[in-house]
Design brief:
Elements: H1 12-20, H2 26-41, H3 49-57, H4 63-74, H5 79-90, H6 95-108
Length: 109
């Protein structure tokens, strides 16, 4: 699998600490979520801290954060994510996000 370019050298545990801080600018939060997804996809998260945070984000309130987390997890070939992602697609509150998610995933492939 091709390694993704990361703009920071922060380990996933530090990125999660930054994401849990309040208040956090929205644009910074999305940047950090993308960075966390890249770190996980590149195999830079041996403890699974970042992966766990992305899974928790799927259940969060923010639509854009849920979309980013879904795309990050969908890009990681992992059997345990399949069930979580399937549940996400079945939730009524996520129906409006699915077309955008599918479009972004098809653009990346």
């Amino acid at each position: 699998m091709k390694k993704l370019f990361r703009k920071s050298t922060l380990p996933p545990s530090e990125i999660v600490k930054w994401l849990k801080r309040r208040p956090l600018l929205t644009i910074r939060k999305y940047y950090l979520l993308n960075e966390l997804g890249a770190a996980c996809q590149n195999g830079d998260d041996p403890q699974g801290v970042g992966e766990k945070y992305l899974v928790q984000t799927l259940k969060a309130r923010g639509k854009e954060a849920r979309k980013i987390a879904y795309i990050c997890l969908a890009n990681q070939p992992n059997d345990k994510h399949l069930e979580i992602l399937k549940e996400f697609r079945l939730e009524d509150r996520n129906t409006c996000l699915l077309s955008d998610i599918d479009r972004r995933l098809s653009d990346e492939s």
